[in-house]
Amino acid sequence: MKIAHITSLGNQFDQTIQRYKALVYPRRHIEYRRWLRQQTRTSPSHLQTLGQPLVVFDFRDNRIDGPQGRRFYGLFIFFVRNGFHPIFTDNYLVLGNIQEKFKQLCLREDFSILSHEQDLTDGYVLVTDKWYSSLSRRAGKIITINYQPDYSASDACFPMPFPLFPSLYATGEDLRLKDYRKQQRQWKIFFGGDAAAKKYNKNSIRKIYNKLSRAQILEILSASLPGELLLELTSDETLRRAEQTISKGVVIMNTRHCKVESEAWLGTIARADFFLACPGVRYPMSHNLIEAMAVGTIPITQYPELLFPALEQGKNCLVFTSAAELPALIHKARAMQGEELAAMKANVQSYYDEFLSPQSAIPRLLAHRPKHISLRLLPFLKPGGGFA
Prior knowledge:
Helix 14 crosses helix 15. By secondary structure, the protein is of the alpha/beta class. The protein has helices spanning 3-20, 26-37, 44-49, 70-80, 92-95, 166-170, 177-181, 203-208, 214-224, 236-242, 262-269, 287-294, 325-335, 338-356, 358-366, and strands at residues 54-58, 85-89, 112-114, 125-128, 141-146, 158-159, 187-193, 230-233, 247-254, 272-276, 298-301, 318-319, 372-376. The chain folds into two domains: 3-163 and 359-376, no CATH class; 183-356, Glycogen Phosphorylase B (Rossmann fold), CATH 3.40.50. The chain is 36% helix and 15% strand. The strands form two sheets. A seven-stranded parallel β-sheet has the order 3-2-1-4-5-13-6. Strands 8-9-7-10-11-12 form a six-stranded parallel β-sheet, sandwiched between helices.
């Protein structure tokens, strides 16, 4: 049996447990009903009269959550950033864990719980993972979540952009990008993120995606770069000192040992011209690649094809495909100056603004098809290589 098939079966079993475990916790159900009684029941028709568009989320169960509620919140906040008022249908399997982990960030925004379908005025946007929703009849747009892997540009579905880390939206950091893009760049190349070797060295990265793992990449740099070109931040004190210096090499920050608050994270990435985009845990895509592009820091990556459209070598990224290519690419980035560097930075910012920002993603999503739209939630996913 192939490793991809075994991994896929394990993922499916884990997903099933996570989706339905709430049914065996009566206390959680009691707490949910108590929470529900406290929620706003604002008339959706009143909001539409005031000109605010509505998006109704009608999910079957919490499969939409993804890791710790990130997918649910990401979709939710993308619509909020575009002026939509979110409405949830009363579904315990979906909302029973809304006060947990990243999903609880939804509670910082205004939303309503739908009491009666007849309260809705025709023309709302419906987002659902059901094969049929009774709310479909009067919706202006119907967006159906598609969890399938192996997206192709020829598929008749819309690829959901990978988001920033949830707390950056919750704190409004995504609304400050213009300031961060103007920031002075004092480091040449930066990597920041969790660097636990065992966690970031999964077989799925190497076997299914055919990429170097995060642990492998950091090990290659440690072995190939001279000491004066490698600055490892191992504590808050080393970070404070680095913030006062200019580095022409690679600055590596393991967030296990050197913590940066959400409000300071984008500003930290914006100190560098380039960001070394190491893979995530089960699949290559990682929030910090998107965060780097948001502030105009140019990614050095081995998976340009996993963004849609793909990133382009020399235009909005630098690409390596093997361990042997990485050291030379680091030196190429170090040598880049002037107009070439400025042009790549501008291209990176333009790519984020056009394809990754909530303000562009939702209008493009709604324009994808006249009414019925299939949304590929994880377009970068390969069979057996992680799960929602």
